[in-house]
Amino acid sequence: MAISRGNLEVNLGRSLGGKTALVTGASSGIGRATARYLVKEGVRVAISARSAKKLADLAAELGSDTVVVIADMLSSADVDRMVADTISGLGHLDILFANAGIYITGEVARQDPATWDQLLTINVNAVFRAVRAALPHMQARQCGDIIVTSSIAGHEALPMEPVYSASKHAINAFVYGLRRQLIRDNIRVGAIAPGTVLNELWGITEEADIVRQIADRTGIRSEDVAEAVVFMLNRPSHVTIRDIVIMPQALDL
To answer: Engineering a disulfide at 149: which of 4, 87, 99, 107 sits with its beta carbon 3.0 to 4.6 angstroms away?
Structure first.
């Protein structure tokens, strides 16, 4: 859609219809909401997560064009296969939304380092591997969009989330460096960094609790983040949004 402003035509967003996308962590929260929004925009999607049942339910809602790829982000082989199966199932890949992640909080002295290994594998290594697997395809086509779910914790070192914060700082550094590598390939790279999102990752599933925190302005919905992702994607091709930080209005941070 475009509007005229004097002698200048301003593009308010390009259509995403006919494009394809892989959404990881699609069985719940931000991933599920984003898959729904992308399908509404006319995007054919591949959805990936560990839960076959949740993915099947979502695919039934999204429609017969949906590709389901069951994958465990702790397995490097699964991550590589996920991207390959997506390209095979959709025919090509325009958008990678690397969203899968886990969250831990607490005092470092009281945490089990094994949980750090799991978090860093899923939040960092799996993202790197998914991007690496998609790049040859996107580079050959000289186009594509890569969006990674970061966090406000990637911009602030939060005192009760030092390991989680470290993982998201790593993601931001990766996004910033990767974007510059891919300029000549016409591939856009960006990160979406939410504050408190009222979903399963935060252990908030009751609608009454969500409504209360929305009213208090202390949390945002997964759908709020999904809308921002779509905004990033439908910018004109000459525009890259490197970061969006989206947070509850009452977050004192």
So the answer is: 99
Name the pTM for this structure.
0.92
CATH number for the domain that contains residue 111: 3.40.50.720
Domain count, the chain: 1
Report the alpha-carbon distance of residue 119 to residue 186 in Å, rounded.
31
- Tens of pLDDT along the chain (253 residues) come to 554 445 544 456 789 999 999 999 999 999 999 999 999 999 999 999 999 999 999 999 999 999 999 999 999 999 999 999 999 999 999 999 999 999 999 999 999 999 999 999 999 999 999 999 999 999 999 999 999 999 999 999 989 899 999 999 999 999 999 999 999 999 999 999 999 999 887 777 888 888 999 999 999 999 999 999 999 999 999 999 999 999 999 988 7
| 72 assigned to some structural domain | yes
Hey, what amino acid is at 127? V
What domain range includes position 170?
A: 18-193
Closest among 43, 14, 44 to 237, alpha carbons compared: 14
Three-class HEC string of 102-153: CCCCCCHHHCCHHHHHHHHHHHHHHHHHHHHHHHHHHHHHCCEEEEEECCHH
Dist. CA 35–CA 87, nearest whole Å: 17
> Known catalytic residue: 103?
no
Which residue in 37, 103, 164, 176 is the catalytic one?
A: 164
| CB proximity list for 235: less than 8 A, separation 6 or greater | 13, 14, 241
